[in-house]
Amino acid sequence: MNGYQYVALRCVPRVDREEFVNVGVVLYCQAVDFLGSAFQVDERRLRSLDPDIDVEAVRHALKAVESVCRGEAHIDFGVGSRATAYGVRAGRDDQSTRFGFLRAPRSTVVQPGPVHGGLTDDPAAELQRLLDALVR
């Protein structure tokens, strides 16, 4: 069994109301070099929170998450060097860094929830199980 971390991705149409609908999951399992995401957008549920929500923008944001997971999106924070409280350190673009970026809190329509963990022998199957349990 390998340890993993995951976050549920929430759609928060109106940040001021703090209401959300889970729309996806990101799962990271360092032991087997797995970083993946899955999502499902239920337009009816989203419109119940905000009738004017741009559902295509939500889908676009979730597809961007998939691109980051696959390493296809160029995330400038992972390249070169950057200043820290302890000096300058070289940045890197690996799965751990990408998961750190994806789990970081933000005030956008699609937001990550808290980080949770578990054990699995099959991260891809666990990702699907979490999607079914948390989103569908």
Structural class: alpha+beta
Please give the largest β-sheet: 5 strands, antiparallel
Question: Number of helical segments?
Answer: 4
State the helical fraction: 25-40%
Cα shape: globular
Low-confidence stretches: none
How much of the sequence lies in strands comes to: 25-35%
**Termini separation:** 26 Å
List the secondary-structure elements in sequence, H or E. Answer: EEEHHEEHEEH
Radius of gyration: 16 Å
Q: What does the average pLDDT come to?
A: 89
Record field, number of beta strands: 7
Task: Give me some keywords for this one.
globular; 4 helices; 136 residues; 5-stranded antiparallel beta sheet
Record the SSE blueprint:
Elements (H helix, E strand, L loop, with lengths): L1 E10 L9 E9 L4 E6 L3 H7 L5 H16 L10 E4 L2 E4 L4 H9 L6 E3 L3 E5 L2 H12 L2
Antiparallel strand pairs: 1-2, 1-6, 1-7, 2-3, 4-5
What do these coordinates show?
The chain contains 4 helices and 7 strands. It has 136 residues and is an alpha+beta fold. The chain is globular and about 40 Å long. The model has no long low-confidence stretch (mean pLDDT 89).
